[in-house]
Amino acid sequence: MYFDGYYLILVVPALLLSLGAQVLVKSTFAQYSRVRSTRNITGRDAAELLMRVNRIHDVTIEPVRGSLTDHYDPGAKVLRLSQPVYGKTSIAAIGVAAHETGHAIQHTLSYGPLGLRSTLVPVANIGSSIGPWIAMAGIFFSLPFLLTIGIVLFGGSVLFYLITLPVEFNASARAIAILRSNNVLTKDELDGVKKVLTAAALTYVASALTALMSFVRLILISRNRK
After folding, report:
1. Which string of DSSP letters, residue by residue, matches 10-70?
2. Vertex 56, ends 35 and 69: CA angle to 5°?
3. What integer pLDDT is reported at residue 12 of this predicted model?
4. For residues 204 and 177, what is the distance between their CA atoms, to the nearest angstrom?
5. Does an H or E element contain 79, and which?
6. Is 174 helix (H, G, I), strand (E, B) or coil?
7. pLDDT at 107 exceeding the cut of 50
8. What is the pLDDT of residue 169?
9. Is residue 2 predicted with pLDDT exceeding 80?
10. What is the pLDDT of residues 50-64, one digit of tens each?
């Protein structure tokens, strides 16, 4: 009863929020993908500008397949931009490219939360993949120590999600500030970029909330089992 009750009360609303955030980011990206920038610059151009302003010369920009698959690889020092971003001149393309370049800037400046998040990647992968299963095994077999181990492991992945929030918010803030100070976009275009990045940020908030609610659920189950 506790299992289903906590899941319905805590986790299901967070999952619904996450689903809504995914729909919002896709629709917002699609909307502003149809709006071309006045200066007619591409996502790649925007990324190059941001890196030039920050004197970054050792990061390669590459196209990558898919949509919204854009990311910065700090190990390889490669900025990978998806097909709807790399060579497109839309407001959405510029916003996404600028945001991902924000991570390259963070890496160059040794931004603390980014380094911490990178350190937590192995912990998060292990915690999210086997933590909940170990916890459920502890519940099923009435083994409190297994439940505790599962909660601790899953807690590592929750920490990763929480650390991700300031990293993503900071990357967007850096991107918007540079685009504004260099007059890359008009005020209306910059407002469009903000909407695209805000929608993307909501997906991270929803993911963190889902992980946190799942974590709280396991803790409550653990307390009721004692």
Report:
1. IIHHHHHHHHHHHHHHHHHHHHHHTSB-TT---HHHHHHHHHHHTT--S-EEEEESSSS--
2. 45
3. 95
4. 21
5. strand 78-82
6. helix
7. yes
8. 98
9. no
10. 999 999 999 999 999
In sequence order, which ranges of the chain are alpha helices (DSSP H)?
2-6, 12-33, 43-53, 83-86, 91-108, 112-140, 144-181, 187-225
Query: Hey, is 104 helix, strand or coil?
Result: helix
Nearest to 193 by CA among 218, 171, 223: 171
Given this model, what pLDDT does residue 4 score? 65
Percentage above 70 pLDDT, the chain: 97
Any residues with CB less than 8 A from the CB of 187 and at least 6 apart, and which? Answer: none
Q: What are phi and psi of 58, to 5 degrees?
A: -115, 20
Amino acid at 66: G
The C-alpha atoms of residue 222 and residue 147 are separated, in whole angstroms, by 7
Contacts of 142 (CB under 8 A, 6+ apart): 225
| Alpha-carbon span 188 to 89, nearest angstrom | 15
Residue 23 makes CB contacts below 8 A (sequence gap 6+) with none
Catalytic machinery residues: 100
Helix (H) or strand (E) holding 80: strand 78-82
Give the list of residues 6+ apart from residue 35 with CB closer than 8 angstroms, or none.
Answer: 90, 91, 92, 189, 192
